[in-house]
Structures are given as structure tokens and as C-alpha cells.
Design a protein that fits this description.
Strand content of chain A: under 5%
Largest interface: A-B, 63 and 63 residues
Structural class of chain A: mainly alpha
Oligomer: homohexamer
Helix content of chain A: 55-70%
Radius of gyration of chain A: 18 Å
Shape of chain A: elongated
Largest sheet of chain A: none
Chain lengths: 128, 128, 128, 128, 128, 128
């Protein structure tokens, strides 16, 4: 699928691009959105859902970025790992914090496999 | 693999069980550790690595728990999801926080698939 | 592993290459088969199984391609996503159809994570 | 997380439950929605997105169910596999169709691994 | 899907069941095959492919079982982990060997995540 | 994250690099370790754990490499697949052995999906 550039965007795509620029306070639009623009409905739905989900709540914006990254790394998604490492850094995540994140992500992937391999039964107290 | 109970533990397993009880401030030992005890070397290595990795650093203990959970959910690891939901709650994670965590985890799993499906090229600025 | 070109193929590999050309009605042989040719037994077994499985039955050829793509995207398999997007298009799958496919694949990956994270118990009526 | 029953639902949750009943033409509400109801925002967002994405378009409702199932199986999501096998059957998917779906899903998971293991380079013609 | 018992099997399913009994030297037929019997073509194809692939070659039968288990654990496939732990033990795999297998599987899952998270570029010498 | 070269390494990183060179009997340090060096604690912990886990025990070094590769392929980890294919070859793994490994890995990924899709219940005898 080709990337839909600003110049070639339909009015409905353009409307989302404008929102992205306004909310993100930058003219740059990530390739991800330019690819989704091939399906304007998915572009709008994903942009709006992403905005709702990533907005600071009881978890702050940085914590949400770290969680996002943890999932993307676990899924071996090169694009999302690259782009969200970038946005994490933009939000103030340091190399030291990234290092700690990666250590936890590595550990969890290891223990997930160990739990599966040893076929560990869930403790009664965790079953509710 | 059977679970190695306290009563049946070898001295090297017992030594780890005692550390777990002391560090975690509880007599209860999770089934996960009782399963790993079938391989005392893995029990000790995993316990020590887990302690090192999960200790508060530039990321606090709750953030690390949330990252751990995000990985476990993404991997569909029922045991780790159950046990770390429990330990997250013990550390003060509320239902509201868990809800926000799950919303981000769901969103990231969705966009990871979209990025793969649209075969989005990594933006030059994220490639360093 | 190197790709086994037509000129360098052993008789048993050549026999599969000829079948591929005949069935696919093209001289072009995908890199996938040229790689599998390093293990002629796997080349033949996979080619024959693939032919049997992908043949139109109660599901038509396009539906099978879409299912194949859904799996490949979920697994973050760049090669299979690229090659089966190509073969889907050859069979008449339009950009609009691909967009709808990707929307469903994204949604399913999201709800799979939500079901795991909320640890939803299977409804009695779905358990048979 | 507990399931939020109809009787205990807040007005915003109730509103979604009513939509589900109306759209699905049944009083039964799946455990999945009752679990999401712990986070009303995620309940509404997921329900609306799901409705938009699963609606018949250039792909019909059955094809979308099959794609959904293919993802859920690949992710080893027991809940989604069970519930969407149920809804697929409700929409007229036969045992024969399910058998063909599973054959394709199995094959794609196999070839995804083979492509990764042989580290097959993407053919120039699939790179666009 | 229901399990197809010996008594209810069609002639083509029965033929595979007889082969399984003869090759495996046991009257017992695993639930896996009884489930696949819902699609006789997939039953035969999978049984024959499995026989071909798992037969001792340059890798012996035990090594192949361990590889099979490593994949099944990584995929969080409870059925395959349980059944192949059983068949591994039948072939002489000891608790000590299983413990070492699981340690390697855990380690690889960890380093896979670390490599993805650090976005490590493949060394020139590994690129051929 | 940048790679930490020998010349730029802190004393604690240097100490691990020296161990790697001594144990591996080569001056070459893989990019993986140079990336982990961004977090010296993770570098040391992972190096030591890897050494402990990959050391020949009741399973020999080659079997452990094959298990490692099986996991890395299943996870679609391009870096680990490339580097461990290299180290497997260095330890004497032939093309024939790699071909058999890949056939088993492909088969297991297929049957994992089939077991999930058919929702096969674990046989009583595999449940302990």
C-alpha cells in the first residue's frame, strides 16, 4: 500500500491529518497514519481511539507510552517499536528508563515461557 | 511437573524459599516458584534476576508491574496475567488503572497488526 | 540459506519447480520455494499440502487468501504478508477489501488482548 | 475482574447493553462485554468499533468472522476462539467450512515459521 | 468440535486410526487426532507430515521432541505442551533434561524481546 | 540505541566484553552485547544467565542451540534467528540438520494452531 501524502488526501483524510497536526503540535505526520489513510474509516477510528486511550488518566502519558512499547516489543513489531521509542523519548523517557523497561519486558517474556513450560496451575488466591 | 512444597525442598531450594518469604514479607510461596524448584539452578537464577529487574529504579515498582502485565497479556499467559494482576493490586493498582492499562494493551496489539498489515516503512526520523 | 535457482536444482527439486510453474501458470518461482529447496522433502511436502489446503472448496480461493494473510499479519511475518498480499491482488482482492481485512485483523488482535487481560471466562453456551 | 450483570450496570453501561441486545437481536450478553463493562469507556469504544468493522462491506459478514477466528486461533486466545466459533456457526458457517478454515490457519502458521527460519528475502516484485 | 471416537469413524478416518495404532504401538489415540478426524483430509495430511518430519534423521527422535516442545511452549499452546511433555517422557526425556530445555526456552524468549527492544542491527557476518 | 564499542565502554562493560572474548575465544563481540551495554546491569545479568543456561549439561551444546533457534524462529525474531543460525553452524550444525529443525518448527507451529482451533481438550493421561 502506498502512503497517502497531504497533497493527495481526500477531504475526510485531510480532516484527520489536520487534527493530528493540531493535537501533536507538529506538521509531521507519521507514515503509520499515511498508510491507514488508504482506508479513511480505519484512519479516523484508530486516530480517535488512540487519542482516547493514550490520554493521561489515572496513568500518566509516559506510563502509557511504556506499556505501548512493551506490547510492541513483545510482538516483534519493528515499526511500532521504532516510532514509540521515538515518542517515548519526546515525552522525556531517558535511556536509563528505556533500559529498565527492556529489562522488565525481557524478564516477563522469559517467565511467561517458564510458566507455560512448567504448566503452573494458577494459585487459588489468584483465581478469585 | 509437580510443585515442590516447603517440606520436600532440598537445602538449595529451601534457601531461595526463605529469601522469597523474607523479601516478600509473607509465608506464601507462589506456585510459580514451587514449579521452578524442580530445577534449583533456574529457581535461583530467575528469582535473583526478577528481584534485580523489578526493584524500583528510575521506574517505580507499580510501573514495572504494569509493564510486566502488558507483556503477559500480550503473550496470552494465563498464569502470569493472574498472578501479576494480583501483585499489581497488592501494590495499590486500582480497577481504574487496570482498565487504562488494558485499553492501551488492546490498542497497541491492534496497531501492531495494522502496521504489519499495511507494511508501513519506518520513518527516517525514527531510524536514527 | 541460499536460494536454489532453477539451473542448480536437483531432479527432485526440479520436479516441484515444474509443478509450480504448471499449476501457477507462470515461469516465476517465489523465493520461498527456492529457499525450501534446500530441503527437498520439505519443499515437496509443503508444496503439496499448500496445494491441497488452498484449493477452492466450501471456501473459495479469495477467502482462503484472506485467512492466510490474517495469520501472517498477526505473526508479524513480513515475507508471507508481502507475498500473500501480492497473490491476493492477483486473485482480484481490491484495496477496499484489503482495508476491511486489516480492520478486522486489527480489531481481533485488540479483543484477543482484552479477553486475556480481563481473564474473561468462556460463556457456558460456547463451551458446548 | 468481575462480570457486570445487567442489574448492576451503571446508566452508561446499560446503554451499551441495550444496543447489544437490539443489534444482536438477543437478550444474552456475552461475558466479554460484561467484563469490559468494568471500564465503560472501553466498553463503548470497543462495541462501536467492533460494529463498524464487522459490518458487511466488500467482505461479507461470514468472511469477516472467519478472519476474526483465524487471528484468535493464531493468538491462542481460548475465549475468542470459543465465542467466535459460536458466532460463526450462528451465521451459517458449517463444520466443513470450519475444517477448511483451520487447515489454512495451520498451513499459514507453518509457512510463517518456515519463511522466518529460512530467512527468505522478499521477492523484488512483492516489494513494490 | 466433538471428538470422533473409533466406533463412529468413517472408513478413511479408521484407516488413519489403524496406522496410528500400528506406528505408535498402542491402542490409545490422542484427542488431537480425534479432533482432526472432523476433517479427514487434514487428519491424513497432518498425520503423514508429522510422521515424515518427526522420524529420526540427522536429528534423533528426542531432539525433535525437544524442538517441538520449545515451539509449543513459546506459543503458549497448553494442549501441545501437555501432550509432547508426555511423549518426550515416553522417549526417555528426564526431569533434568526438561529443566534444561525450559531454561533455554525461557532465555531465548527473553533475548528475543531484548533484541527487538534494542532494535539490534544484524551483524554483517550473520547476513551472509 | 547506539552500539557501545570497545573503545567507548565503561569499566563494568569492558569487564563483560573481556569475559565474552575469553569464553568465546574470539575478539568479535556481537551487536547484541554492544546494544545491551547501554544498560550494564542487563548486559552482565544476561551474559551470565546465558552462559549458565547454554552450558552443556544433560543436553549438549548443539541441542541447546537448536532449541534456542526454534524459539527465535517461532517469535519471528530476525536478529536472534540470524545470529543463532551462525553460532549453530560454528558448532557443527549442518544444512541437513537445519533443514530437519525447520521442518519440525514448521510442523509444531501448524499443530499448535490446529489444537487451538479445534479446542482440543487435554487427554486425562497428559494431565497427570
Amino acid at each position: 500500500m502506498r502512503l497517502i501524502e497531504y497533497e493527495d488526501a481526500s477531504p475526510e483524510v485531510l480532516a484527520v491529518y489536520e487534527e493530528i497536526r493540531r493535537v501533536r503540535k507538529t506538521d509531521y505526520i507519521n507514515n503509520f497514519w499515511k498508510a491507514l489513510a488508504n482506508d479513511p474509516e480505519t484512519l479516523r477510528r484508530t486516530w480517535e481511539a488512540s487519542n482516547q486511550v493514550m490520554a493521561p488518566g489515572t496513568l500518566d502519558a509516559i506510563t502509557k507510552e511504556l506499556i505501548y512499547l512493551a506490547v510492541s516489543i513483545t510482538n516483534q513489531c519493528a515499526y511500532c517499536t521504532a516510532s514509540h521509542t521515538g515518542s517515548a523519548r519526546n515525552k522525556g523517557v531517558t535511556d536509563k528508563m528505556l533500559g529498565e523497561l527492556l529489562a522488565v519486558v525481557g524478564m516477563a517474556n522469559q517467565t511467561n515461557a517458564l510458566a507455560a513450560g512448567y504448566r503452573v496451575e494458577i494459585d487459588a488466591k489468584f483465581r478469585e
